[in-house]
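Archive transcription. Copying these from loose printouts into the bound notebook so they stop getting lost. Printout 1 of 2:
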Amino acid sequence: MAKLLSCVLGPRLYKIYRERDSERAPSGVPETPTSVTTPPSSSWDTYYQPRALEKHADSILALASVFWSISYYSSPFAAFYLYRKGYLSLSKVVPFSHYAGTLLLLLAGVACLRGIGRWTNPQYRQFITILEATHRNQSAENKRQLANYNFDFKSWPVDFHWEEPSSRKESRGGPSRQGVALLRSEPLHRGTADTLLNQVKKLPCQITSYLVAHTLGRRMLYPGSVYLLQKALMPVLLQGQARLVEECNGRRAKLLACDGNEIDTMFVDRRGTAEPQGQKLVICCEGNAGFYEVGCISTPLEAGYSVLGWNHPGFAGSTGVPFPQNEANAMDVVVQFAIHRLGFQPQDIIIYAWSIGGFTATWAAMSYPDISAVILDASFDDLVPLALKVMPDSWRGLVTRTVRQHLNLNNAEQLCRYQGPVLLIRRTKDEIITTTVPEDIMSNRGNDLLLKLLQYRYPRVMAEEGLRVVRQWLEASSQLEEASIYSRWEVEEDWCLSVLRSYQAEHGPDFPWSVGEDMDADGRQQLALFLAQKYLHNFEATHCTPLPAQNFQMPWHL
């Protein structure tokens, strides 16, 4: 009877992976009392085959879930319509509640029938036995057996806790349950401090900004967190996850962040291969509708690196909602997992981000300054210009205030706090992070990210002459135009390198540098072009084109 109840309440099982010979337990090693022996994978098909009763019951419950999601998103409009028609009176609501109660009882009955269907299926009974054993005892053998199943991630046991590193338990400077530290907007200047009357006047605007950010704004910014989109992408995500596990020997893990969100991760270990880059770990930060199952993780994988992918809060197996604070909390526990559980030193970790993933990448670079390098592909400097691009001009004040208070993705500001090597990849046909049209390459916000970084690191070089020549170079939309501008200014790379190396030897590596202070205009222009060409590479493609492995290069450094 207990097993039947476990089948009724158990998670949905999607797939049984092919068991790899290298993962099977040695025959001479005795099993722990809570270990469960799995039958050979060849006796079962790798796709879970539900019985007819479970299959049909699952379809009914999935349909009900979709209808509930549609009802949730349309509830404000439905409530307004019902109110206008007079259907929200007590005499109409009571019968409706009876209908709703009856429907819930019917769905509960369907769930019980699904449990009976699972109970009659030896595949599911074997799976639920392994899952319960793993929850009781997370031994290496139990976790190895559980990793052969793909199921609803809510039931996956937690593999790593944000407080697990001993240094965090002893330190008061680490993150609290309220979250890790973020850069905040500059405080008001003295003399403009808010009085009580001003605060009362601003209250309606603040309430409006909060409502916009937590309803329409968050879903526009992170469409991958919308349940209906995830439901539509589920077959593709399952296929991508199977590829990572079966072909790349990927290991899935659940991390618990300081805000209580559970983060879905996938680790592919290449340290045992002959390729030297396998000793480096690339942590991938996906875009606003990207998932590690089908996202930018494929680029460093093809290049031979060890890779750690993770999903934003609210994406696929990760819980929560993708607000900046939650994003930073998730990134923090991912980096801690890489260091304290996977065994990588910060100097062996590279942060690679695509598009909106630049926010968490630059936060990690700012917060973990010993990280080896940062690579930002198709990313931007600040969210406000891109948000204003898609909203009406009359909403400018509301949009700016909402972004600054609730959705402040200040990538450039965070990146300037990092002292290590950086590479920016600009898509020359990018249609997403341009503020006008894709053909207008100067409206690409990747340009602003480069300029802000160079102006912070080399303020004397990026004075008026240097800034002007770099802008001319950024106008190039092809490699031929880029090389033409570069050669026109007759950049002497050996001279530039010698100037930079001598300055570093004399003053140290910490930015900002005052190099170029005593140079003439021609020298500053040459140095500015040299640095721009080292920090930014062009890729002739649109925003969503996968980056080829040959374009995944380590950033330049002296």
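Printout 2 of 2:
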Amino acid sequence: MARRALKIVSWTSMALASSGFYLYSNKYLDPNDFGAVRIGRAVATTAVISYDYLTSLRSVPYGSEEYVQLKSKVHRRSAERLRELCCANRGTFIKVGQHLGALDYLLPEEYTSTLKVLHSHAPQSSMQEIQQIQDLFQSFEDTPLGAASLAQVHKAVLYDGRTVAVKVQHPKVQAQSSKDILLMEVLVGAVKQLFPEFEFMWLVDEAKKNLPLELDFLNEGRNAEKVAEMLKRFGFLKVPRIYWELSTRRVLLMEFVEGGQVNDKVYMEKNQIDVNEISRQLGKMYSEMIFVNGFVHCDPHPGNVLVRKCPGTGKVEIILLDHGLYQILTDEFRLDYCHLWQALIKADMKGVKKYSQRLGAGELYPLFACMLTARSWDSVNKGIGQAPVTANEDVEIRNNAATYLPEISQLLNRVPRQMLLILKTNDLLRSIETSLSTRASASSFLNMSRCCTRALAAHKREQTCSLLKKTQISLGESLSLWQINLHELFLRMRGSWLGNWVFALLYWLSPTPH
């Protein structure tokens, strides 16, 4: 018996030693790719973060200044641990971390600022892992132009001389994604048992729904062509052409287009690109997608939105990249959302309450309005178009994200799933506007008003067969659009040198009251 046990131990030791030597000597095998390592790391990180929250705040009076300061430190430590987990496990974990990092006005600042770096520090696959596709090209640059959570992009030249961008999926992401999502589902459920007030299952549900679509690059190619056709009236928009003959579910070939990131003010100044014009065009483009078409590009972080002056014509273009993640809005949701934004712009509080509740906010509609606009409740009541965001108001909103985190997580779990990606998209666009110093400009609200007016009028026309009714609706639409254009002209005149001179002259000529 003892001899048999010794034999088993000897063989086991030899197997372990051989495996260890193989792993050590084989530089292409990464221990991080083993399920046990990934699961163990995720479980350990979740346990440490949960223990930190349970014990660190226990002895401090709730709501005191010391409590607030200590909670901020716990948030920061936890966010850093979460970032390290995402970087180590890669793939799906980085994708989810990027989603959290984009929710600037919905999560505590400690989390969003810490996780935001995942957009620009995604790991790269080695050339050995993607070498099977290199023979298809006359030349292929080894260093990627950019690496993301699910793929990386290389510059290459085809044998017919065309310069292309080649998007290559990271080799192990497909196999790991379903297991990673299941693991996240279990861990989020466990955390909910410890902290019942935090509802983050919506995040897992979104990943479960969207990740298979993002991993299908043929779907991404179709999205790119659809949005290019849908927004073809915008001459400033450039969507790179897809080359289908060499594209597959894991490799996507596109026209190669260069430009600077949309938040790079230095690049724009150097190339004489007007930041205000870029901000207006970006607002037009997204208002059209959300309110009119209901087909929304939901990942507009700066790496996916480039700007350039078109070679030859000198015309300024916005280049829209990465078309894997789109949200399709139902007509009911889209029209309620149009009504809600019209109410917010006009400070119609009855309309704000009505349409917020129709979109699932319930009694939390004031919080929902603040989340949607990233404005204080006081500003919402006065009208979000009446005054720009102040630095103090921005700080107040970010602090409230930490204060009302349980209510925010409850609300995110309650609203229609279509709203989740819209909120993420809103925050990413606001981040770009903040970088360009064009946040909450009057022109952005005017563009939204135009699109809402057009969308609601088109819906009304579809609902009637009467030619007279359709004519009345069209006349009403034209009148509303004319009023918006007149208001925009007034604002532009007031902001110009000539306009200021005219207004000063009119004031001087007006009779002085006695």
